[in-house]
Amino acid sequence: MSKQGTGSAQSVIEVSIQDGVAHLKLSRPAMLNAMNREFWSALPAIVRDIDDNARARVIVISSTGKHFSAGMDLEVFAENGALASAQQDPHVVSEAFRHLVLGLQGTFSCLDEARVPVIAAIQGGCIGGAVDMTSACDIRYCTADAFFCIQEINLAMTADVGTFPRLCKLIPEGWVREMAYTGRRLPAEKAKAIGLVNEVYPDHAAMMAAVMETAREIAAKNPIAVTGSKVMINYARDHAIKDALDYIALWQTGMFAREHMQEAFTAQQEKRAPRYPDLAPVRKRL
Fold it and tell me: Are 144 and 123 in contact (CB under 8 A)?
């Protein structure tokens, strides 16, 4: 097992990597895992390091304590002047605030943009910003005591970090509107019934056992085929059917891995696990 993350990053998110699975664990249970200032910089840094350097084939995000996360720590607003009386021209302040919001959105967009699948394991409350985060994950599982709440309406604001663009793609719009307008809690079984989560487990231990088993199963598959599937699913979500069909044809032209398929067939014949190469690290500069 290897670990990464030091200093403030390690204080808010514990990271371990084993069997091709990177496990990110929110680690501020006494504060209900509220997303403080360190969190917003730590999460994208950790995810991009894992993804860019091909350190794992799957990412699992779980939490500690009674609740998955109480959402954004209000100190984040205060530290950035969002709740303070503006001494400058209000339009200038508003323009700068837009960039703050875009930066916060990027914290969760890194999950959607990662080459590898991201699985969320949710217990207790998944509130406010935590709904933003988990809606950016590929798959969600939860415990029987879990609930989801678009808390922003109870704070006299509109959710702005990713809830609506993503949640409206995951569950019927009527449910998004009810949650957004009322601030009501969506319980675990209803979340499963409308497709927000794939499965509900009786407790945290049972959930984590099942989630890690699923993560290891995905990690054993061909990484190129898995990342290709994620790219295609995301593209189909955001484009018309005709465009998505054209894109998958183009993708296959360059990514069709005949050697990997031969390994899959050979492994089946030899009754062994297939052996595939990891994704290559991403080069972002010369």
Answer: no
Identify whether 282 is part of a domain: no
Q: Look at residue 35 in the predicted model and tell me its pLDDT.
A: 96
Which residue in this structure is represented by tokens 């084993």? 18
Q: Which of 158, 138, 142, 140 is nearest to 150 (CA)?
A: 158
Using an 8 Å Cβ cutoff, are 111 and 50 in contact? no
- Identify whether 276 is part of a domain: no
Residue 14 falls inside a structural domain: yes
The answer on 147 and 59 residing in a single domain is: yes
Residues 126 and 20 in one domain: yes
Biggest CA-to-CA distance, the chain: 72
**Strand, coil or helix: 236:** helix
The pLDDT tens digits for 79-107 are 655 555 556 788 888 888 888 888 888 99
pLDDT of residue 5: 43
Last residue of a domain, one of 182, 201, 219: 219
User: Which regions of the chain are under pLDDT 50?
Assistant: 1-7
Burial of 269 (0-12, 13-18, 19+ CB in 10 A): exposed
Residue-number span of the structural domain to which 240 is assigned: 223-269
Whichever domain contains 63, its CATH number is: 3.90.226.10
Residues 195, 93, single domain; the answer is yes
What are the residues whose beta carbons fall under 8 Å from the beta carbon of 265, sequence distance 6 or more? none
- Length of the chain in terms of residues written: 286
Q: Residues 107, 45: contact at Cβ < 8 Å?
A: no
